[in-house]
């Protein structure tokens, strides 16, 4: 039994929301949130009223209409009869293509330059510094336009390859043609091709009837290509799965070698075995499929055949990579400098060569510091790719946010969709990269 | 203080809600300046001269409207717009009038909520190629690389033309005519396509115009005309009748040389009605009596404007053709001033 009475419970009064420090911050936050929502509601209402006054209801119906325009670079089948939505997807794939290519090249270049900047050779480290400052301090748009202008004015025109005594010739055993419209590479082709499978075919369409007919007629084959939402090459799947299976077996061999090394201290030489395991079945698959290279050839106005990398893609890719590499180089440098000198000295004491010290001891640890800012560089590169329109590269800003917007006059809808596209790409990239970061970060015990 | 900010915000809200509706005439008069959307630079149609003064066939329309409404043909703010930005600029109220080689189409008129007030140039889409290429017809262009301005009827027609003829092409999208010209001259595309008038104007700016041919095919109808926002009929009427006044002036022989003379009154009632010495046409439009006289005096009648900017004596060198008056076998025709 207790004789102590509880202190009198302070009854809640309204004024406490403001004067009691326990509640005050919550009150302020609630008021701020309400203010924000009111502001947003006012904006949205204003837009709705204005659109209604202009007689333009807010709808996305236009997305299913035929687009009416052509796109030069398309990773999936597309023509002017396809819908605006499909044009947007074609643009989105082009955005992703240049983003992936750009991130890859920028990473290699950035790491390379970042390491060079720390070189003990004065000339090399100064050159790397000049590179970083030069690219970092000039807007990327200028680099894009400059590279585009340089290629379209300095490289030969397709017509220069014509005639008995042409002023330009193809490079590397007549396999690569460099023109001012882009570069043509040989393309892998298969004489015993397994064909493509149409995903989500709609058998009532003309294209899918042609697809089912499996005719040899060029016109029918061309038509059949637009059956389904997109088509997947069976050849690619076959080669890919053989290759991955072989890689996995080869990994088993490597694990076994590590086991033996752990037991006996001597690592058996297995690299030729591993190479054979991967190479031989892959080559056999290629041979069965009848692999050969299709070379570009000058026909009419342009080169035909081969893989055509347009100068717009080339300029955008190179400019974005060079520009972002300058930032990545700085991030890499900072990451390496964050690793204590003792680490490389210890590695040196164990007799590890400087190059291997960098790749085996310093860089893996530096990665933890490098990773988070690297993610934001990847996101920057992806968003900067929307400058594509400056060189006529048909990314999603060019198709959905450019031609579709213009031909349909749906500014609000297309811009909102466009923003959603970039938001989703960015969120996906950062989720994946954050997951990776989580896995590799230093586990504190 | 706080209260007035809030009230201010409210008025802005109600104002913005009404912006698309009406009142362009009052806005322009209050501002004392006409905001006119023109192209980013197309010799003969709209381009700034060496002193930065805008001139051209489309510019003349802007000046005539400014003269009619404000009484001063220099009270114009020219807003250069690309094919991509033009409709947004007009719809948002950034410009009051768009005179920019714009084709009158159903979807622009109906779906984009624009109002075309007339046609000042009957055009069609053509192709230009270097002579050295040896092409004589657009049907030979299978596989060619073609430069096109995006957001135009040009790119839609191009797609239709190649599809209808069963041939393929590689489009190179560009933003402005200047960029297209640069790409074409650098050989980044084999052919350049746009309205035939635009081709002539573009070619006129080349160093060696004779090295380039304009192919005989005209693949579309491109009626070009000035346009305003849908929904403000009073303003639309003013622009429409300013254009009609210029056309009627040519038909009835009113020129910049004799307009002062004729403004004193003539035997011809139609001329008198146009020039405001008879009837109350100006009042009906919400303007004063000599609105049309000022518009005509601004740059001359329709024919004079044509000859001075794009006619055969200019570097652009266009023949009147379809753009002659109906009395001379062309299509230019104005409804009566009555
Ligand atoms: N008439 C077409 C095409 C308009 C167009 O592209 N005009 C070009 C050449 S005729 C132009 O004005 N270019 C000047 C510029 O880019 O500002 C349309 O309305 O869509």
CATH class of the largest domain in chain B: Alpha Beta
Tell me the overall shape of chain B.
Answer: globular
CATH superfamily of the largest domain in chain B: Periplasmic binding protein-like II
Helix count of chain B?
14
Mean pLDDT of chain A: 87
Sketch the major β-sheet of chain B.
5 strands, mixed
Q: Give the rounded overall mean pLDDT of chain B.
A: 90
Q: List bound small molecules.
A: glutathione
Return the string of H and E elements of chain A.
HHHHHEEEEHHEHHEEEEHHHHH
Helix content of chain A: 55-70%
Strand order of the largest sheet of chain A: 1-2-9
What class, by secondary structure content of chain B?
alpha/beta
Query: Level of helix content of chain B?
Result: 25-40%
Tell me, briefly, the overall form of chain A. Answer: globular
In total, how many domains does the architecture of chain B comprise? 2
Distance between the termini of chain A: 47 Å
Largest interface: A-B, 40 and 48 residues
Q: What is the element string of chain B, with H for helices and E for strands? A: HHEEEHEHEHEEEEHEHEHEEEHHHHHH
| Total beta strand runs of chain B | 14
Descriptive account of the structure:
The complex is a heterodimer of chains A (445) and B (338). Chain A has 445 residues and is mainly alpha-helical. Chain A contains 14 helices and nine strands. In chain A, the strands form four sheets. Chain A has a three-stranded antiparallel beta sheet. In chain A, helix 6 (206-213) crosses helix 7 (218-224). Chain B is an alpha/beta fold and 338 residues long. Chain B has two domains: 2-122 and 223-328, D-Maltodextrin-Binding Protein, domain 2, CATH 3.40.190.10; 125-220, D-Maltodextrin-Binding Protein, domain 2 (3-Layer(aba) Sandwich). Chain B has 14 helices and 14 strands. In chain B, strands 10-9-11-8-12 form a five-stranded mixed beta sheet, with helices on both faces. A three-stranded parallel beta sheet of chain B has the order 4-1-5. In chain B, strands 2-3 form a two-stranded antiparallel ribbon. In chain B, strand 2 and strand 3 (54-55) form a beta hairpin. In chain B, helix 3 runs antiparallel to helix 13. The longest helix of chain B is centred in the C-terminal third of the chain and has 19 residues, at 233-251. Chain B starts with a helix and ends in a 29-residue tail after the last helix. The model of chain B is unreliable at 1-21 (pLDDT under 50). The interface between A and B is large, with 40 and 48 residues. Bound molecules: glutathione. Glutathione is lined by residues 39-42, 82-83, 101-103, 149, 152-154, 176-177, 194-195, 198, 222, 224 of chain B.
């Amino acid at each position: 039994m207790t004789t102590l009475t509880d202190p009198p419970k302070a009854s809640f009064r309204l004024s406490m929301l403001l004067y009691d420090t326990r509640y005050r911050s919550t009150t302020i936050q609630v008021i701020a949130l309400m203010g924000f929502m009111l502001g947003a509601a006012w904006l949205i209402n204003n837009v709705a009223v204005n659109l209604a006054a202009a007689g333009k209801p807010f709808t996305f119906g236009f997305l299913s209409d035929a687009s009416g325009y052509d796109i030069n670079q398309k990773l999936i089948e597309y023509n002017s009869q396809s819908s605006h939505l499909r044009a947007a997807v074609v643009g989105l794939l082009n955005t992703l293509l240049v983003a992936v290519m750009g991130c890859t090249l920028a990473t290699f270049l950035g790491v390379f330059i970042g390491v060079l900047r720390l070189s003990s050779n004065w000339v090399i480290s100064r050159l790397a510094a000049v590179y970083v400052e030069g690219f970092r301090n000039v807007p990327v748009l200028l680099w894009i336009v400059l590279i585009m202008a340089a290629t379209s004015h300095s490289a030969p025109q397709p017509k220069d390859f014509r005639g008995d005594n042409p002023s330009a010739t193809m490079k590397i055993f007549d396999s690569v043609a460099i023109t001012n419209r882009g570069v043509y590479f040989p393309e892998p082709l298969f004489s015993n091709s397994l064909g493509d499978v149409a995903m989500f075919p709609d058998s009532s369409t003309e294209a899918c009837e042609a697809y089912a007919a499996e005719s040899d007629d060029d016109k029918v084959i061309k038509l059949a290509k637009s059956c389904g939402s997109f088509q997947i090459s069976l050849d690619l799947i076959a080669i890919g799965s053989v290759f991955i299976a072989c890689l996995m077996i080869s990994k088993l061999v490597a694990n076994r070698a590590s086991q033996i090394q752990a037991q006996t201290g001597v690592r058996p030489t297995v690299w030729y075995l591993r190479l054979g395991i991967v190479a031989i079945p892959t080559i056999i698959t290629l041979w069965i499929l009848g692999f050969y290279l299709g070379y570009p050839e000058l026909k009419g106005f342009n080169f035909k055949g081969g893989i055509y990398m347009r100068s717009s893609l080339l300029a955008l890719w190179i400019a974005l990579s060079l520009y972002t590499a300058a930032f990545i180089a700085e991030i890499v440098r900072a990451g390496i400098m964050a690793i204590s000198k003792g680490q490389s000295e210890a590695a040196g004491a164990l007799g590890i060569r400087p190059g291997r010290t960098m790749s085996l001891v310093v860089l893996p640890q530096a990665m933890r510091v490098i990773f988070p800012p690297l993610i934001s560089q990847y996101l920057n590169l992806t968003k900067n790719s929307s400058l594509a329109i400056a060189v006529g590269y048909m990314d999603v800003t060019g198709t959905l946010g450019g031609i579709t917007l213009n031909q349909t006059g749906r500014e609000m809808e297309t811009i909102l969709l466009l923003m959603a596209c970039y938001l989703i790409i960015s969120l996906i990239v950062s989720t994946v990269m954050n997951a990776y970061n989580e896995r590799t970060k230093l586990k504190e015990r | 203080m706080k209260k007035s900010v809030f009230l201010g915000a409210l008025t802005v809200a109600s104002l913005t809600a009404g912006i698309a509706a009406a009142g362009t005439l009052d806005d322009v008069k209050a501002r004392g300046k006409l905001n006119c959307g023109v192209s980013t630079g197309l010799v003969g149609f709209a381009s700034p001269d060496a002193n930065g003064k805008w001139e051209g066939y489309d510019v003349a329309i802007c000046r005539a409207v400014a003269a009619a409404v404000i009484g001063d043909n220099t009270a114009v703010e020219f807003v250069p717009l690309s094919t991509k930005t033009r409709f947004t600029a007009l719809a948002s109220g950034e410009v009051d009038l768009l005179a920019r080689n714009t084709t009158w189409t159903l979807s622009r008129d109906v779906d984009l909520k624009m109002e075309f007030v007339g046609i000042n140039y009957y055009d069609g889409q053509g192709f230009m190629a270097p002579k050295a290429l040896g092409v004589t017809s657009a049907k030979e262009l299978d596989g060619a690389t073609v430069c096109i301005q995006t957001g135009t009827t040009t790119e839609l027609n191009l797609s239709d033309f190649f599809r209808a003829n069963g041939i393929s092409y590689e489009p190179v999208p560009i933003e402005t005519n200047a960029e297209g010209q640069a790409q074409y001259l650098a050989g980044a595309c084999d052919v350049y396509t746009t309205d035939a008038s635009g081709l002539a104007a573009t070619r006129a700016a080349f160093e060696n115009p004779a090295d380039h041919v304009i192919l005989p095919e005209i693949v579309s109808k491109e009626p070009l005309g000035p346009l305003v926002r849908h929904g403000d009929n009073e303003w639309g009427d003013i622009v429409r009748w300013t254009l009609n006044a210029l056309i009627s002036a040519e038909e009835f022989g009113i020129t910049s040389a004799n307009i002062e003379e004729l403004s004193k009154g003539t035997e011809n009632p139609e001329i008198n009605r146009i020039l405001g010495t008879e009837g109350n046409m100006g009042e009906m439009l919400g303007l004063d009596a000599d609105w049309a006289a000022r518009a005509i005096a601004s740059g001359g009648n329709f024919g004079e404007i044509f000859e001075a900017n794009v006619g055969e004596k200019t570097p652009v060198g266009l023949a009147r053709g379809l753009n002659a008056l109906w009395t001379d076998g062309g299509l230019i025709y104005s409804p009566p001033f009555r």
